[in-house]
Amino acid sequence: MEIEDWRKQIDELDEQIVALICKRAEAAKAIGVAKRDKGLPVYEPQREDAVLEHVKKLNCGPLGDAELMHIYERLMDVMRTLQRRDI
Amino acid sequence: MEIEDWRKQIDELDEQIVALICKRAEAAKAIGVAKRDKGLPVYEPQREDAVLEHVKKLNCGPLGDAELMHIYERLMDVMRTLQRRDI
Fold first, then answer.
1. Do B9 and A1 touch (CB under 8 A)?
2. Total-model pTM
3. Which of A32, A53, B2, B17 has its CA 20 to 30 A from that of A2?
4. Which of B7, B47, B70 sits opposite A78 (nearest CB)?
5. Contact call for B6 and A67, based on CB within 8 A
6. For residue B47, which of A68, A11, A15, A67 has the smallest C-alpha distance?
7. In chain B, what residues touch A26 (CB-CB under 8 Å)?
8. First and final CA of chain A: distance in angstroms?
């Protein structure tokens, strides 16, 4: 496959990834509202550790675990900001 | 829905997101090999801008564009490291 073909594949993957990130953000927002209603803190380190452990188990390469964690730490950071902002 | 139900949904979404990130990394790796063979640089700012523009158009909320970009900048940063490392 040529570079242009791989790039088309990446564009298609991004369409799916962004749609899933949007759904994940909706769920995070709903959790933010529930946390506010129950008086729970936004930052729950145990849950964040569990998410990262789950993600690490799902890693199917070729990224190393640390690289995948690097992406997910940013994703969770952004989701936490959303929970603080939109509720 | 309760917090636990949303968290189950997030875990399921993470399974899909990680699988797609793995596929995206495979494609990035293949592009890295092709770039090396053709003597092209790993960092191509025009292509990276095009990816970010595409992602911005796909944003279906509730994240703001800047928040989604924040995630994708990290994702692309990691993919660039992979292209430099694994070829």
1. no
2. 0.97
3. B17
4. B70
5. no
6. A11
7. 61-62
8. 46
Report how far residue A44's alpha carbon sits from residue B73's, in angstroms, rounded to the nearest whole number: 25
| 8 A C-beta contact, residue B17 and residue A16 | no
Q: If DSSP codes are grouped into helix, strand and coil, which group holds residue A42?
A: coil
Residues of B in contact with A33 (CB under 8 A): none
The tens digit of pLDDT for each residue in A5-44 reads 999 999 999 999 999 999 999 999 999 999 999 999 999 9
Question: How far lies A54's CA from each of A85, B54, B81, in Å?
Answer: 26, 29, 23
Below-70 pLDDT ranges, chain B: 86-87
Give A21's contacts in chain B (Cβ within 8 Å). 17, 63, 68, 71
Kindly report the nearest CA distance between residue B46 and chain A, in angstroms. Answer: 13
Torsion, CA A79, CA A80, CA A82, CA A87, rounded to 10: 130
Residue of B nearest to A76 (CA): B71
Token pair for residue B49? 């801008």
